[in-house]
Amino acid sequence: METPICDFVRAYALRETVRAHMPGHKGNARLGAERLDITEIAGADELYAADGVIRESERNASRLFGSAGTYYSCGGSSQSIRAMLFLAMTQAEKPEGRPLLLAARNAHRSLVECAALLDFDIEWLYPAESESICSCPVTPRDVASALDGMEKKPFAVYLTSPDYLGGMADVRGIAGAAHARGIPLLADNAHGAYLAFLKPSLHPLHLGADMTADSAHKTLPVLTGGAYLHVSENMKFGESDARRALSLFGSTSPSYLILQSLDRANAELAGGYAGEILRCAERTAELKRRLARNGYRLFGGDPLRVTLAGDGKEIARRLRLGNVEPEYADRDFAVLMLTPDNGEQDFARIEAALGRADGCSGEPRRAEIVRGRRVLSIREAVFARQELVPVQEAAGRIAAAPTVSCPPAVPAVISGERITGQAVRAMREAGIECVSVTADFI
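Above: the chain sequence. Below: its structure as tokens.
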């Protein structure tokens, strides 16, 4: 597959042109990547009005992923999530009052911040039970029941799958429940771009989602910040609408280093990398089996993620002693994310570092997922004058800006909600010491 962005930039770098344009480094190497770092010069195209090499590259990506349209983001899946929500909201019938979204509670803070920016309300879907705020195993029946009980029609259903712990939702069933009621399904697929290349595909777009936001950089060979907005043929807006939506939430100076890495990933995926993903999934499955035989309890179904339940901090300590850095660890889980760029030696080192579970594995404690009472809209709370207070003094106050550690970036309490004693406990267990509360609304 051709790589039009990479080809243009490399040819430009070889010409040794006098760079009387941005960026200020003028191609002189300090980090080593400067020669390939350019801006929107003649021939380089423009991300939010693409009609040249960027558009050609995006169409290559669209063919690879089987979408009706794929658009690049240099602002991670956070930018794609906000654009996706904007598009769904503006395409829906205009409701009385604020637009409404139905969303699973384990959403990334990007959703809450977008609700503040676009001024929509969220009705949250909660699971019957969950081991973590990062996990929200809602079912198609849960979604159907919630939709049928809502007085106002939401502009979309919003799902996070895979979730941060590797939980995989029944996307096909949930899409069916939403579509039967004339509502689109949006998927935060930040951790699952690679799912399109499994056999069969487990990508939400192929299971019925109408739009997805994928962090290419999380699971594919792409530089940090590279992401996709995938659109299905069910959505009726045009290419210019998608680009306008992305432009609202992204810099007018997108990174051409990131764009080149997205472009190069197309060639990798069209070549042997898709097959390497399948082999990596097999190696990961074998590693999981071996760890289970060593006494570890596995959690979640993401084929390239190893989530170990138990004393996550102790598990992480063991890994670091073996010079293995996990993606995430808390009181109940340790998470490792693997890709084909982890060779056989990496898998062996992980297994050797962990050894036998020896009491650090077990059932996670049930998480307190806070069902808050909304006092203000999300926008009112986020845009209010705020103050930072110790968590132990926050009970009774109104949450303002999302207060959350990253990772996992799932808010323990939602902006605009009254902070309860349960919420205080949840935040303290998450290691949050201070919380932003409204100063004028008490």
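Residues 256-293 form the longest helix (38 residues).
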